[in-house]
Fold this protein.
Amino acid sequence: MNIKEAKMEVEKAVKIYLEKDENGEYRVPLVRQRPLFLVGAPGIGKTAIMEQVAEDLDIALVSYSMTHHTRQSAIGLPYLKEVEYGGKKFTKSEYTMSEIIASVYDVIQNTGKKEGILFLDEINCVSETLAPAMLLFLQYKRFGNQQVPEGWVVVTAGNPPQFNKSVKEFDVATQDRLKMLPIDADFDCWKEYAYNAGIHPAITAFLETNRKWFYSIKSTVDGQQYITARGWEDLSAEIQAYERNGFPVTQELIMEYITDKECARKFAVYYDLFKKYRVDYAISDIIAGNISSGAIQKAQAAKFDERLSIISMLMESLGISAKGVVVEEEALEDVVKKLRVVKKNANKSTSVYQMLAENIADIKDNMDKQKQANALSAARKAVLLREIKLIESYKNKLDEEQIVSSDNAAQFALVKKTFQKDVKKMQTAANKTTASMENAFKYMEAAFGDEQEMTLFVAELTVNRNIANFIAKHGSDSYFKHNSSMLIYNEDDKLTGEIDQLLDEAV
């Protein structure tokens, strides 16, 4: 299975294991809740999907790599305890709480989340002294005399033996206590993640026509040469940082992340071409509607890999624009709900200014708890940070207008007015994004008509979560025209996202 299918399997298992009956008892007994074992090559995304599952299911996540744990650190340290049996006193050995299980209790206490995932990575690399204790743990969720708290599902992961010299192949007794999930590298699955993670478009375009270079590990006379999904993502971040600072991206830099010499050389050549395409095609002009006949003719004469680069560059521009609107809209939707409560409580002694300050504190506290629970995605974090900035701007406006000491009616009126300006800015940005998308379609139609490039472009728009969410709320005539078989737009979804309606109801 690919990593996306593995994520779905993990989500289903967690839901089933946490399902309770009418008496509040777990329907699947603890002893039958087999830990999941995700086994796949390194850098394939096993750890990343745990964070996504935790956020999707609104549960906590505690992660540990088992490579550094000894029997003592996993089970706990022994100490002597005096007990009485049959009227006689004895001294017996007890164990302190395991570091791993203690971490679970810490997260429960700090976040209030009583259900979660205990993720143990590199489980097939445990030390010889710890291996026997793992059998007990895998079946009964116990390290020594300490039990994993109820409501916590155990998920494990590891690499196959050919990728890690420390790996010990599981015997039947161990495998028979696990739910095995073998994971294979899959470019199409990773590409969907890449668009939403902001991977550099040169990488996605290069791999689209060179799929054999997506993932490869081989032994050569010069040692192991490897290409992993993690390597491409880390290289993407480095390239983007180099571009921001005006540093040249060289083959030597690429080989720090992609050690396969042939692949690194080919990508270095392609990256230089991609930079040239950025200048030649002037994507910003196309998005703005300034479509020259030269840009159309150049695309028509281009080879397929160059055409893919054009699509990647369009996707990059549209994705950034759509993400800005989506984040702003989600933040405003959250803010307007809080303003409803502020308005409702405006007749109380607490000032509007103070209520806004309390809202900011609540958001920050929630973010902190989500971080500790390892359940805060980058997308949600962006929305919450924007929400904080919006509310802070309303507080600052009250300060600037010097009406902090005025009555709540005057304070709220100014907040409402400022909020409405933010809504109009968002709507202006949304209209600009819609126009940009229409301009991109005009260019694609003029250059390629309804050929395979258009089909690919529409499919990529659907895969990009920010663009798909934008279209679902704001629509796109050209998208619907070319994508009648994969409509993601629903009129009810649009209505739920209308800020104007929320404004009327709330403030």
